[in-house]
Amino acid sequence: MSASQKPPPVPPATAIPGDDVPTLLVKIFGKDRPGITAGLFDTLATFSVDVVDIEQVVTRGRIVLCALVTAPAAKGVTEGELRATVHNWAESLKLQAEIISGRGDNRPRGTGRSHVTVLGHPLTAESTAAIAARITEAGGNIDRIFRLAKYPVTAVEFEVSGAETSPLRTALAIEAAARGVDVAVVSSGLQRRAQRLVVMDVDSTLIQDEVIELFAAHAGVETEVAAVTAAAMRGELDFEQSLHARVELLAGLDASVVDKVRAEVRLTPGARTLIRTLKRLGYQVGVVSGGFTQVTDDLKDKLGLDFASANTLEVVDGKLTGRVVGEVVDRAGKARLLRRFAAEAGVPLAQTVAIGDGANDLDMLNAAGLGVAFNAKPVVRQAAHTAVNVPFLDTVLYLLGITREEVEAAETHAD
Fold first, then answer.
1. Is the bond into 122 cis (omega within 30 degrees of 0)?
2. Fewer CB within 10 A of the end CB, N or C, for the chain?
3. Which residues are catalytic?
4. Are 138 and 168 in contact (CB under 8 A)?
5. Consecutive H or E run containing 82
6. What CA–CA distance (Å, rounded) separates 87 from 128?
7. Which of 251, 254, 231 is nearest to 242 (CA)?
8. In angstroms, what CA-CA distances link 181 with 20, 28, 36, 55?
């Protein structure tokens, strides 16, 4: 650009109308069809109004379109003329119009903003009413509601302001348990859309099986392994003790059984969809397991995981020795691995998601920015940030604000 040339002037920013500036709320509702939004604003444009806010929703072919605009600025034009023109336009399309006079913009949203995701199978009117009432009791206002998914569960999201996230989460967890629905409450903000890390437990989370039980079946020691597991559940053994006791029962098993166990592993419904969708969105995904690397390494390769860590069964001369080698991945170890994966991925711990079902997942769930108890034991459901109690792992996507339509679109356009 030469010195004689000047850049085009930048128009001044339009100020948000103050509380004393007359504004009009124009509401249009009726049967949806293409061109309604353009038609309304073409009609309003003749009155030289400025757009302050717009909201539009379409449900089962019915549109509700709301436009908050300034009062007519065209010389010699009255508000009454605008009203008449908009009503005539609406009637010509067999729509209804309502115009409400007021002043200024919308009232400011309250501090403390959260996304409340509700999963129901089905989602009943009774449970929806109870959740909405509890939000109100907590001091929150529901600013917007929209559906994330209609299957395999019904998932809706409430945008809430005026209530702090932590106490709102506690209040809604109690209500959700009473109503048989799942509720997740996360803070609004940019970090919800930022790149994240998702780390999952494996047994009874990513997969439907308990891997040590699959090995035990080949060794003919299912009953003995189950007895040790029961002792651990009663608190008579900690995880590391129970692991060593169960692995000892596998001593002498031929190492070729590893391939058989890998073939027997059943992914949880929705697991592939969850991982594929997260990867397409730029997430990194890992697994931590109290099970065995002989299985988790295979899962890492097959599913394209970024991280995997588990215990390793010792093999000598083609036989399992009944011992594990290396550091044991226990309850504390899972939390340490979450932190290590986050550091390696360059993701703040607040932007991590952990998913698990057992008591040995609790430290990991509590360390993550969002801890999800998946079909978990009661003690885990009570301690985690949120719980999912349907057998579809991809429902975790809805807790992140990802809609079913977005998931399906990504599947359709996949390479």
1. yes
2. C
3. 201, 203
4. yes
5. helix 79-92
6. 35
7. 231
8. 45, 34, 37, 29
Give the amino acid at 124. T
pTM (two decimals): 0.81
DSSP symbol at 130: H
What 3-state class would DSSP assign to 98?
A: strand
Instruction: Dump pLDDT digits (tens) for 253-280.
Output: 999 999 999 999 999 999 999 999 999 9
User: Would you place residue 5 in the very low, low, confident or very high pLDDT band (cuts 50, 70, 90)?
Assistant: low
Residue 267: name the closest of 200, 181, 338 by CA. Answer: 200
Query: What is the average per-residue pLDDT within 376-382?
Result: 85
- C-alpha 155/C-alpha 121 separation (Å) is 9
Contacts of 94 (CB under 8 A, 6+ apart): 30, 31
Residue 63, C-beta contacts closer than 8 angstroms, at least 6 positions apart: 28, 29, 30, 31, 32, 36, 56, 57
Task: Point out which residues pair with 117 in neighbouring strands.
Answer: 157, 184
User: 92: which strand partners?
Assistant: none
What is the tens place of the pLDDT at every residue in 144-161?
999 999 988 999 999 999
At 341, the amino acid letter reads F
Residue 295 has pLDDT above 70, yes or no: yes
- Which pLDDT band, with edges at 50, 70 and 90, does 374 fall under? very high
User: Residue 68 corresponds to which tokens in the numbers above?
Assistant: 């908050």
- Strand 154-161's sheet: what is its strand order? 141-149, 154-161, 113-120, 182-187
Place of tokens 């970090």: 191
Give 48-90 pLDDT, tens digit per residue.
999 999 999 999 999 999 999 999 977 788 999 999 999 999 9
Residue pair 248/315 in contact by the 8 Å Cβ criterion: no
